[in-house]
Amino acid sequence: MALTQVQWHKVNEAATTLKEGGVVICPTEGVYGISAAVSRLAAIERIIALKHRAANKGLIVVSSSVAQLESVVNFAALSADSMRLIHNKWPGHNTFIVPARAQVPALLTGGRSTLAARVTDFELLATLCAKVGEPIVSTSANISGSAPLETIAQLQATFAHSVDYILDEPCMGRNKPSTIYDAVSGAILRA
After folding, report:
1. How far apart are CA 161 and CA 156, in angstroms?
2. Cis peptide before 99, with omega less than 30 degrees from 0?
3. What is the DSSP letter of 75?
4. Helices (H), ranges, 119-188
5. Is 69 within 8 Å of 135 (Cβ atoms)?
6. pLDDT tens column, 124-181
7. In whole angstroms, what is the distance from residue 185 CA to residue 123 CA?
8. Strand pairing of 165-166 and 24-27?
9. Alpha helix (H) ranges present in the chain?
10. Backbone torsions φ then ψ of 44, nearest 5 degrees
11. Is there a contact between 29 and 172 (Cβ–Cβ < 8 Å)?
């Protein structure tokens, strides 16, 4: 399904904001997410503070393609079987715990040597990532420990003065979180 002209405008606005180091709320596959470009550490710090989130939890990174993740993921550390599984499940509603490149900041990894990453199959989100030109952080739009906010009105009431742009389009409609795989072992960590 192609994006409408209005959606293109909103995606362009959100992408510009992210490229300039801003923080954006945008729809994802299941819930609204708070996002920043992975190279914008000050914006990522803002997200952690906004959510009252522990910095050692790490954050999920979303991209439009496997190639776009190469700046943060050490794919060379994975076996051929692991790469086959990844290519079989992406794009899709599947998150992989993958080896992070050495230069990836602890804000993204939670201080681990791994990173949670997903190549989205949600056209609006994939288009946003492609326009930003790098992966984006995507963490649920809520205060840590509370339920994700479900409506634009809730998002505006909670975050309108704290974020730089709200991409007010509906989520893809999936009603459960992504499946999480360990890329090294292939084990399902969350179904």
Report:
1. 8
2. no
3. G
4. 123-132, 152-159
5. yes
6. 999 999 999 999 999 999 999 998 898 999 999 999 999 999 999 999 999 887 899 9
7. 29
8. parallel
9. 5-19, 41-51, 66-69, 80-89, 106-109, 123-132, 152-159
10. -65, -40
11. yes
Amino acid occupying residue 118? R
The CB-side HSE value for 140 (13 A sphere, CA atoms) comes to 16
Q: Are 37 and 43 in contact (CB under 8 A)?
A: yes
Strand arrangement of the beta sheet that strand 136-140 belongs to: 165-166, 24-27, 32-37, 136-140, 60-63, 114-119, 94-99, 179-182, 188-190
Decide: 119 and 63 in contact? Cβ < 8 Å: yes
Enter the tokens of residue 143: 């205060």
Mean pLDDT value across the chain: 95
Nearest 5°: phi and psi at 60?
Answer: -80, 140
Q: With beta carbons less than 8 A apart as the criterion, state whether 74 and 99 touch.
A: yes
Tracing tokens 């599984």 back to the chain, one arrives at: 85
**117, amino acid identity:** A
The one-letter amino acid code at 21 reads: G
